[in-house]
Amino acid sequence: MAEEKIMIVEDDALIATDLREIVSNLGYEVSGIADSFVTARLLAPVSTIALVDLNLKDGATGLRVGQYLASNFGIEVVMVTASSEAIQDDLPKVIGLISKPVHPTLIKNVLDYLRRIREGGRGVPPAGMRLFV
Q1: Is this prediction's pTM over 0.85?
Q2: Domain extents for the chain?
Q3: Average pLDDT, the chain
Q4: pLDDT in tens, 24-62
Q5: Among residues of the chain, what percentage have pLDDT more than 70?
Q6: Which residues touch 34 (CB under 8 Å, ≥6 apart)?
Q7: 79, 54 in Cβ contact below 8 A?
Q8: CA-CA distance, 125 to 88, in Å (whole number)?
Q9: At what angle do helices 104-118 and 13-25 cross, to 10 degrees?
Q10: What topology does CATH give the domain 5-131?
Q11: 3-class DSSP string for 64-82
Q12: Residue 89 to residue 7: CA distance in whole angstroms
């Protein structure tokens, strides 16, 4: 798991800290926490996976951030939002979506699923994850 570096894109400090703790306790490295499009761009070169909220410090830019990270850096992006109904269509290049509040088991299952994909496997997406690709 050492090669996986997880970026958390979340502007709520408590939620971001909780996600960082969950990801770290699962044995993954957190590349950093971004709260806006600008800070996500700075962390992109050192990240392989991004957990991206829909509404960030600079507005509802999460969709743009997710697509930018996936398209320009090949980062595997999963949207993590309490506003899942706001995402009506599949998002090109974004793998999927999970709804807040997230349980550590769901985060584990999502990260394990993404790891299997990165290793060339298929796997079954975890219950609670809506796939886009």
Answers
A1: yes
A2: 5-131
A3: 91
A4: 999 999 999 999 999 999 999 999 999 999 989 888 889
A5: 96
A6: 7, 8, 9, 10, 40, 42, 43, 65
A7: yes
A8: 19
A9: 60
A10: Rossmann fold (3.40.50)
A11: HHHHHHHHHHCCEEEEEEC
A12: 24
Q: CA-to-CA distance for 14 and 75, rounded, in angstroms?
A: 24
- Amino acid 95 reads I
* pLDDT reported for residue 133: 66
CA 28 to the chain's CA centroid: 13
Token pair in block for residue 106? 């769901």
Closest CA to 91 of 127, 130, 123, 120: 130
Q: What is the 3-state secondary structure of 70-125?
A: HHHHCCEEEEEECCHHHCCCCCCCCCEEEECCCCHHHHHHHHHHHHHHHCCCCCCC
Extract the tokens encoding 99: 């709804």
d(CA 65, CA 62): 5
Amino acid 46 reads V
Tokens, residue 64: 């743009």
